[in-house]
Amino acid sequence: MRHVYECPVRWGDQDLLGHVNNVVYVDYLQEARVDMLRTHGRSQTEDLAEGVVVVRNDVGYRAPLFFDFRPVRIECWVTELRAATFTLAYEVFHERPDGSRKIYLQASTVLTPYVFAEERPRRLTAAERETLAAYLEPTEPAARVPVTERPVTAGHYPVQVRFSDVDVYRHVNNVTYFEYFQEARIHYFHGIWQEASRTAPQPLLVIARKEVDYRVPVLHRPEPYDAWSWISRVGNTSFDVRSELCDGDTVLARAHTTVVVVDPDAQRPTPPEPAFRDALVAALQD
Q1: How many domains does the structure of the chain reveal?
Q2: What is the pTM of this model?
Q3: What span, in angstroms and rounded, lies between the C-alpha atoms of 52 and 111?
Q4: What is the pLDDT of residue 202?
Q5: Which of the listed residues 99, 115, 143 is the one where a domain comes to its end?
Q6: What separation in angstroms does the CA of 15 have from each of 21, 104, 122, 182, 279?
């Protein structure tokens, strides 16, 4: 069984390209998840609606989503049940008149029940497992790319936590981490592009995939945290960026982002300009 959520698309969800921003998708997934566990879930899963923390988000972007007065549909279901974690899968789509789907995003989230009063995870109860099992469609977990050590030449960006970033449990919301990594990545790209060329047009970049591992909760404080970004792979039309959010030597979260260079006219992947590619390769070698 799969849960279906009708998610409204807001005008403010768009970025400069007129697409729904990659960060906003993660907010949509959170809405669908809460709707599944609380609004339309049984009483056994009501505690899971907000009494969970996200351990990992793995998001694959398939096609751009534009503003539409029609809500976008989100299917979600369970792919794995463990003693203290469960994994949800999602598909974001519009249904065509012939019954086929225009798929915009496919994703998965690993969650653990959490006792916020004691700041500790807990095991799933028997009732919660039974209810979640009704949505179970087991799949093999996707292979994960090994963690690479941060190079000394990684780009630095100070992350200032805003009061509005914090949820009712005084933790920074899992969606906001995507914003932090996006801000750090854009700042890092700006530096690379300045090194590459001041005359050629900046490339059009879109996110193809993003994985975020959450390790330690981020809290509101006046001092900024440290975000680090570096190039870990350069391909023909895409490249990978690794990122870390840190408090001193403590890693709070890690991200792995695949970025695609796109031809603005054809709206298809294209090799980057030589100057930009050379700058990416130089950053990779560093």
Answers
A1: 2
A2: 0.91
A3: 6
A4: 76
A5: 143
A6: 5, 16, 38, 12, 26
